[in-house]
C-alpha cells in the first residue's frame, strides 16, 4: 500500500479496498447497498493530485451515485484479472471504463506486475530471442522497456507492437463480453510535455481506430477525449501535491481536464437512461 500512501496525492484515508478485490481504489469507501454507476480505470480515473476527479464531477452533474474505481497504475492485467473488480462492475447500473494503454499487460514477450501494471518484471524467452543484443537487467518499467526497444530502429519493434495489439483486443473483448452491464468506453488521449505537444510518447504503442471498432459492438458507447497534462495546461497551481511531488504532478491531468471529461461523458450517460 505504500506507493498509495506516499504518492497518490490524496490523504491516506482517501484510498480504499472493496471485498474480493486486491486493488486499491480512490476513496473514501462507498456503500454498495444502493444503486451506483462505476468509473473504472487507471491513474487518470483515480485523479492523482486532484481533489475532484471526473467521477465526482459526474456525480454532482447527474445527481447519481458514482463510485470511483480508479486504481493507480491499473492496466489490462489488473482490469481483466481481478475478479473482485469485475464483481463491482457487474453490480453497477452503468460502467464508464477508461481504455487501458497497451503496454501494461503480460504477453508472450514480457511479464508485468499483476496490480502495478507499469512495472516490468521479466523478459520472456521470445523477447530475449528477438533482442539477443539487449540487456534487460536494469529495466523496471514498461515505458523504459519500449523506449529501449524502439531505440534500435528496426523491424523487430513492430513484432512486439503487434503482440500487444492482439493481446489487448483478446483481453478487452473477453472482459466486455462477460459484463452484464452497459459500458461506456472512455478513450483518453493525454497530451504530454514534449516539445511538439505530441499526444503519445514515442515509446508508446497507440490504440488505433481499428481496435476501437473491434470492441465497439460490446460497448454502449465510445467517448474519445483529448486532454493535456497540468505542466502543459497551466493547471499545476490547482493541484494537490507535496514539494517533492511536483515533477510527478506536472505529468498528471488537472481539474479542468477532469471537468472536460465529465462533460464529454454526461451526454452519453443521459442517453442511456
How would you characterize this protein structure?
By secondary structure, the protein is α/β, with parallel strands linked by helices. About 40% of the residues lie in helices and about 15% in strands. The protein has helices spanning about 1-5, 45, 55-60, 75-80, 85-90, 125-130, 140-150, 155-180, 210-215, 230-235, 245-250, 255-270, and strands at about 15, 25, 35-40, 65-70, 95-100, 110, 120-125, 185-190, 220-230. The radius of gyration is 18 Å and the shape is globular.
Q: What is the gist of this entry?
A:
Helices cover 38% and strands 16% of the residues. The protein is built from twelve helices and nine strands.
The whole-angstrom Rg is 18 Å
**Would you tell me the overall average pLDDT?**
90
Poorly predicted tracts of residues: 1-6, 194-200
In spatial order, strands of the major sheet run: 4-3-5-8-9
Q: Summarize the main sheet.
A: 5 strands, parallel
Q: What structural class results from the helix and strand content?
A: alpha/beta
Order of helices and strands, N to C? Answer: HEEEHHEHHEEEHHHEHEHHH
The share of residues in helices is: 25-40%
> In one word, what is the shape?
globular
Number of helices: 12
Report the portion of residues in β strands: 15-25%
Query: In whole angstroms, how far apart are the ends?
Result: 37 Å
Query: How many strand units?
Result: 9
Amino acid at each position: 500500500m505504500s506507493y498509495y500512501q506516499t504518492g497518490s496525492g490524496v490523504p491516506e484515508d482517501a484510498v480504499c479496498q472493496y471485498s474480493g478485490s486486491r486493488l486499491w481504489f480512490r476513496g473514501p469507501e462507498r456503500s454498495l447497498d444502493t444503486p451506483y454507476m462505476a468509473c473504472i480505470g487507471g491513474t487518470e480515473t483515480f485523479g492523482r493530485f486532484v481533489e475532484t476527479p471526473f467521477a465526482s464531477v459526474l456525480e454532482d452533474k447527474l445527481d447519481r451515485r458514482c463510485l470511483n474505481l480508479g486504481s493507480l497504475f491499473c492496466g489490462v492485467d489488473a482490469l481483466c484479472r481481478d475478479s473482485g473488480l469485475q464483481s463491482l462492475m457487474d453490480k453497477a447500473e452503468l460502467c464508464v471504463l477508461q481504455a487501458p494503454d497497451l503496454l501494461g499487460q503480460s504477453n508472450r514477450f514480457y511479464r508485468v506486475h499483476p496490480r502495478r501494471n507499469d512495472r516490468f518484471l521479466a523478459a520472456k524467452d521470445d523477447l530475449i530471442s528477438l533482442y539477443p543484443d539487449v540487456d534487460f537487467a536494469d529495466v523496471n518499467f514498461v515505458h523504459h522497456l519500449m523506449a529501449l526497444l524502439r531505440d534500435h530502429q528496426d523491424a523487430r519493434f513492430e513484432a512486439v507492437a503487434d503482440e500487444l495489439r492482439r493481446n489487448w483486443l483478446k483481453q478487452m473483448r473477453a472482459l466486455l463480453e462477460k459484463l452484464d452491464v452497459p459500458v461506456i468506453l472512455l478513450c483518453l488521449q493525454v497530451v504530454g510535455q514534449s516539445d511538439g505537444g505530441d499526444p503519445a510518447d514515442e515509446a508508446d504503442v497507440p490504440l488505433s481506430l481499428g481496435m476501437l471498432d473491434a470492441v465497439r459492438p460490446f460497448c454502449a458507447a465510445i467517448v474519445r477525449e483529448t486532454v493535456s497534462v497540468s505542466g502543459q495546461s497551466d493547471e499545476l497551481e490547482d493541484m494537490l501535491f507535496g514539494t517533492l511531488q511536483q515533477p510527478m504532478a506536472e505529468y498528471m491531468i488537472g481539474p479542468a481536464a477532469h471537468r472536460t471529461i465529465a462533460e464529454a461523458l454526461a451526454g452519453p450517460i443521459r442517453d442511456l437512461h
